[in-house]
């Protein structure tokens, strides 16, 4: 809404009414109340959070029009399917990410992939991790340069991002699950580290010591308060847990996600506008969402709708997989568990315990 310009106030300071001075702090508190309110949602994801009402923060967010990028080749949205969000953690080494000790591999992949399902009523949530080494059928996709990437079978899931971008990852997940993704969120290494540092760290407990020279993680058994750099190593470590595969670290990623959500939920962000803004600024710089969430207002509205979700009740599941018979270093969706899992989420029904069991566990033999 556009307001007509007004004449400048030339009233001497000593003659202004006291009520005029009181109005500004009240407006300021309302602004920060909305900013903090937004911090519920992206966090729901993996690692994300939301923030709003400042134009510079609004401009930080990159948007992706999924309908335009994918077209009509998408699953039907069922009236009882709740909300489904694909959350990606990308492993780009460019920009600020290059200074985080993440290696010098060119390009970017989807280092972490979570399908977040929030049933109707939005009082609980399910997070399904898709192992990056899973062999999948990649559908035909439009690449970012306008060319077409042909469909292919038995490709590694995390390669889809580097070949055709996030829209193709969304399309791949939709076709393997039969679930239409309502939203998409992506955060990179720098954004993840900035979020953890902005909230003052996250506390985790490990039953066994973890030492991984590749990620730089070195933790004794026990409870630890991790800063942003340590947290990034924690969710990326694979050589220090289980059999050294991607499956072993998924358990750590899910453990950390719950700890992160719980930490943010218990912090009094309403009482700390400086912290709220710091979190907002650092994270939105590293955030990409679908076009329906790429504004502060949209993120705030979505955050409010998720207010009833308690991290303590979140169900974390790894997509059931089995070791590939041709290449034991890769995995494939295990059947009938995977089909049963996706069907339960698609129809917003309780997931049978049998559908949560994975033949490939990532544990040492």
Strand content: 15-25%
Q: Spatial order of the strands in the main sheet?
A: 1-14-9-2-3-4-15
- The number of helical elements comes to 12
Can you count the beta strands?
A: 17
From the spread of the alpha carbons, the general shape counts as globular
Report mean pLDDT, rounded to a whole number.
78
Low-confidence stretches: 1-53, 93-109
Report the order of strands and helices.
HHHEHEEEEEEEHHEHEEEEHHHEHEEEH
What summary fits the major beta sheet? 7 strands, mixed
Helix/sheet category: alpha+beta
In helices, the fraction of residues equals 25-40%
**How large is the radius of gyration?**
22 Å
Distance between the termini: 65 Å
Key traits:
365 residues; alpha+beta; 17 strands; two-stranded antiparallel ribbon; seven-stranded mixed β-sheet
Structure in words:
The chain has 365 residues and is α+β, with helices and mostly antiparallel strands. Helix content is 35%, strand content 20%. The protein has helices at residues 18-38, 41-44, 55-60, 66-70, 159-164, 166-177, 189-198, 228-236, 246-266, 273-284, 296-305, 337-346; strands at residues 62-64, 83-90, 110-118, 126-129, 135-138, 141-142, 148-149, 152-156, 183-188, 202-206, 210-212, 217-219, 222-226, 287-290, 315-318, 321-323, 331-333. The chain has a 7-stranded mixed β-sheet, sandwiched between helices. A two-stranded antiparallel sheet has the order 5-8. Helix 1 packs across helix 11 and helix 7 packs antiparallel against helix 10.
